[in-house]
Amino acid sequence: MTSRVRLRFSSSIFLASLLVVSTFVFFGCSERQRTLDDANEKIEAGRADEALSGLREALADLPDDSALNLAYGRALFASGQPSLAVWSLTKASRDPALFAEATLLLAQAQIATHGEELAVATLQTLLDEQPDHLDALRLMVEACIEARQLEKALETVEHALDLLPDDLALQMSRMRVFLHLD
């Protein structure tokens, strides 16, 4: 075989391999996306239980996929299994693109499982990066009240009211803090 023929043969093998790999990646990614879309649709429709099996199968193949872990955590939480949701939400919160959403849901799961102190610490990581994140501030106030960290609850609700002074829910939260302080 001449070097030109070998080169052409090697190039053909390389291109064929590239085609096989890209086809696998494309169909693998599209299957993952279909699973995510289907699961999110079911969760939004209040049928989180139905989303769990497809997400479990997808996570068996892609256990470190942040978006799948977030969807699985959401489905577990929505189906009344917050203690099971914690692991997946913790994994999802490590992804910078999903950090805020996963961290908020993780804190909610922690509160639901009587882990208020853990929720306070979890929310603090979000507020350290995004100090004006209103959903995190609101949840932090509630977590602090439940954890009996009333000074921190007051400080947090005052900061939130600085951002939204006319917010009735925040004003009610501040009254709750004052009631617990006495």
Biggest beta sheet attributes: none
Q: What's the total helix number?
A: 9
Poorly predicted tracts of residues: 20-28
Rg value:
23 Å
Which structural class is indicated by helix and strand composition? mainly alpha
Average pLDDT taken over every residue: 89
**Portion in strands:** under 5%
Q: Give the termini distance in whole angstroms.
A: 92 Å
H/E element string? HHHHHHHHH
Q: What fraction, in percent, of the residue positions are helical?
A: over 70%
Strands, count: 0
Q: How would you describe the shape? A: elongated
Any overview of this molecule?
The protein is mostly helical. Helix content is 82%, strand content 0%. It is built from nine helices and no strands. Helix 6 packs antiparallel against helix 7, helix 7 runs antiparallel to helix 8 and helix 7 packs parallel to helix 9. The longest helix is centred in the N-terminal third of the chain and has 42 residues. The chain is elongated, with a radius of gyration of 23 Å. The termini are far apart. About 5% of the residues have low confidence.
